[in-house]
TrEMBL record, chains A, B:
One MF annotation (Gene Ontology) recorded for this entry: DNA-binding transcription factor activity
The protein's role, per its UniProt record: Modulates transcription in response to changes in cellular NADH/NAD(+) redox state.
Assembly mode: Homodimer.
Similarity section: Belongs to the transcriptional regulatory Rex family.
One Gene Ontology term, aspect cellular component: cytoplasm
Boundaries of every CoA-binding domain copy: 80-181
Keywords: Cytoplasm, DNA-binding, NAD, Repressor, Transcription, Transcription regulation
DNA-binding region: 17-56
Protein name listed in UniProt: Redox-sensing transcriptional repressor Rex
Gene name of the record: rex
Binding site for NAD(+): G91, T92, G93, N94, L95, G96
Any Gene Ontology biological process: response to redox state
Keyword check for Transcription: yes
Coiled coil: none
Amino acid sequence: MKDNSKISSAVIKRLPRYRRYLYDLQKKNVDRISSNELSNLIGYTASQIRQDLNNFGGFGQQGYGYNIQSLYNEISAILGLDQEYKMVIVGTGNLGQAIANYTHYYKSGFKVAAMFDVNPKLIGLRINDIEVLDYEMLDEFMKNNTIDIGIICTNKDSAQEVVDKLCAGGVKGIWNFAPTDLNLSDDIALENVHLSDSLHSLAYYINRNKQKDS
Amino acid sequence: MKDNSKISSAVIKRLPRYRRYLYDLQKKNVDRISSNELSNLIGYTASQIRQDLNNFGGFGQQGYGYNIQSLYNEISAILGLDQEYKMVIVGTGNLGQAIANYTHYYKSGFKVAAMFDVNPKLIGLRINDIEVLDYEMLDEFMKNNTIDIGIICTNKDSAQEVVDKLCAGGVKGIWNFAPTDLNLSDDIALENVHLSDSLHSLAYYINRNKQKDS
């Protein structure tokens, strides 16, 4: 396997975005695109785009540009989207259910294997054809199944305990929606989606714009 | 009003996080904290913390540290969280409903005034005591109400049209959950929560860790 570990995290953050645009271009049956045309679409400069894509050998050809299909496939492979991931969701309130239903993900090889909750009203429900299991069964479930990703949709006070169980159960990554920061070992990947932080940033920029106007 | 427009966006991104920790400390009845103690909690270096907080006059006192209550209030005010925001949600599938129910926000002065959808099965439903209205009524609703924030929970193909309507209707900020990039005027604030980008980054880091191990 190619060594992509030297690609900077700033580039990695941009790759899913490139991939989204390349996906749309494919859908429109476009075969190839120049870095200038990509720049007009995505908003990064053409030189930034060339630099980003050169990182992993996505070389455009002079006078031809990038082959969209192969660039899309390459970026997908770098992101690991040519593989399948088994996931569990812990916390099946509205947000957990929304994540479970976000079928977009399933198309990309992310499969929810089970969902867990402590609430007797939720246990036994079927969401997107996946049964909500009793949180008490999490340890045993993790023993009997190979799960790649644990998704945390609990409140912030339960999040660390859940993460500890998931890590003991062998997950390789945590996708955290609880509004708290988690402690976990360096060899387990972590992505936080802190909704309240995002909303608070939005409030800041709204007020900064108001100050400019006044 | 104090001019905070010179604070860098990197600092702004960290403020909601400081605020979360200060909130927890308040709840534990802690009165004051040194930059070193804050550093141990949050994980930023003490000198980074002093630099960040000096940006807006949050000076700690030698031998005393920061007063938690006043620092919390100051950061809240900078973020504009001492004000109330009226919001509409467009798209009331699972994600839209999850956002509507995320009551955490209401406590901070973010109020959902109305929700909209095109789906006859959803129109008329009450979620968190807010009725889902017909999307056809959005223009008129925006004419008759002052709305600060529009929340986009539609699919990506509808997102830009919805944003255009909301901007014409006078919103000051857009909180976008649709997996697409939006065009809007510079004086309207925009925060994207691209869930699929976040999940794809997670997949990348999982695979990078695997490569390290092998």
